[in-house]
Amino acid sequence: MRLWGIRDRTQQRGSGNVTRKVLITGTAGFIGFHLAKLLLAEGFRVHGLDGMTDYYDVRLKQRRHQILLQSEGFSATEGMLEDDALVQQVADEFAPDVIVHLAAQAGVRYSLENPRAYIEANVVGTFNVMEAARRHAVDHLLMASTSSVYGANVDMPFVETRKADTPLTIYAATKKANEAMGHSYAHLWNLPTTMFRFFTVYGPWGRPDMALFKFVEAILQGRPIDIYNHGEMHRDFTYVDDLVRGIRLLIDAAPVRPEPGPELPEWDSLSPAAPWRVVNIGNSDTVRLLDFVEAIEDSLGMKAERNYMDMQKGDVPATWADATLLHELTGYRPKTDVREGIARFVEWYRDYYGK
Ligand SMILES: Cc1cn([C@H]2C[C@H](O)[C@@H](COP(=O)(O)OP(=O)(O)O[C@H]3O[C@H](C)C(=O)[C@H](O)[C@H]3O)O2)c(=O)[nH]c1=O
User: Fold this and answer.
1) What's the pLDDT tens digit per position in 88-126?
2) Which domains does the chain carry?
3) Is the pLDDT of residue 5 over 50?
4) 173: which of 62, 167, 188, 194 fits an S-S bond (Cβ 3.0–4.6 Å)?
């Protein structure tokens, strides 16, 4: 009997990067911007597709794109994922080898205010991207999911092979739907597909709706910060450079449809029916929210005025990634200490906003 190892179930496609073309959705967004920068530095050609929605300050998105446009290997289209004709046209013109789909309506709490935006961007938009990937038979389709899909799970750290069937918000539900949609196309069209579960990503150029940005902004302006669940929350905060390094390495680890063989190791989420995997990208550490706030105060050299609040509807109390699978596939583990990452954010924030 043939013995299968993780390498047999994964195609390592590391060579010839210089000529490879990657279509990234969401390049004006926080993670897409950092990933595009990394791939451009490694000689990939990158085309970005971004809707420039006004969910948060559009100037920040424009600035990110301006920086990317300074690279010769970068081109971009502004347009919405929901516009199928546009998505197909962009893919036809660029003819990508790989698609990394990061654009989404993100944010846990906004999904209570405007759930429809999540259905449109995350369900319809993702379907359009999957169609483009199918039509172009790309080498690898990689799509963002979220640790929010672990929802009401309490067994920590979160492992990809355990059930995640209890999403607590429409945001999480749309991302869980994306994972299932990706599986169906991986099976039907033999489309190698990797889904990432991100864990509270933070760092320079971060999202203004997220805790780090909001807290730093408020403290510097002398306004109180809202601390949910009285600070009794935990997050596996993941530094953005580590995250995009993980994505970069996963590009070269396309799943292969399994053939009959011995059982997969318990930590491998490879589907028994399709070239499809879901992979946590997290720091493998869980930080108490009050410690996170304290680290921000130390970095700023200022004390926050704290407004303790109850748990917010839809929020999960804790996240913590088991990153064994990422390590097995790539040999890499995120490692930036949260104090170090916060300090780099604060340095960027002060420089960018002149504070
Ligand atoms: C904005 C805010 C947050 N918080 C708390 C709530 C969390 O315990 C922690 C981090 O919140 P943040 O909004 O930065 O991140 P998450 O709620 O974990 O959600 C984020 O990470 C997941 C994976 C995604 O998929 C989301 O897109 C992304 O928004 O601070 C507060 O206490 N006050 C605040 O004003």
Assistant:
1) 999 999 999 999 999 999 999 999 999 999 999 999 999
2) 10-200+239-284+320-335 (3.40.50.720)
3) yes
4) 167
Ligand 1: residue of 170, 200, 311 to mutate (most ligand atoms within 8 A of CB) is 200
Query: What residues contact 351, with CB distance under 8 A and at least 6 apart?
Result: none
Active site residue 171: yes
b (16+ CB within 10 A) / e for 285-311? bbbebbebbebbbebbeeebeeeeeee
Computed on alpha carbons and rounded to an integer, the radius of gyration of the chain in Å comes to 20
Tell how far the Cα of 146 is from the centroid of ligand 1, in angstroms. Answer: 12
Nearest CA to ligand 1 atom 29: 107
CA dihedral 211, 104, 14, 322 (to 10 degrees): 50
Q: To test ligand 1's pocket by mutation, which of 110, 210, 240, 313 has the most ligand atoms within 8 angstroms of CB?
A: 210
pLDDT in tens, 61-71: 999 999 999 99
Q: Which residues pair with 321 in a beta bridge?
A: 158
**Both structure tokens of 86:** 């546009």
Q: How many other β-carbons are positioned within 10 Å of the β-carbon of residue 274?
A: 22
Q: What is the ipTM of this complex?
A: 0.99
Question: Full-prediction pTM beyond 0.95?
Answer: yes
State how far the alpha carbon of 32 is from the alpha carbons of 188, 234, 325, 338, in Å: 28, 25, 22, 21
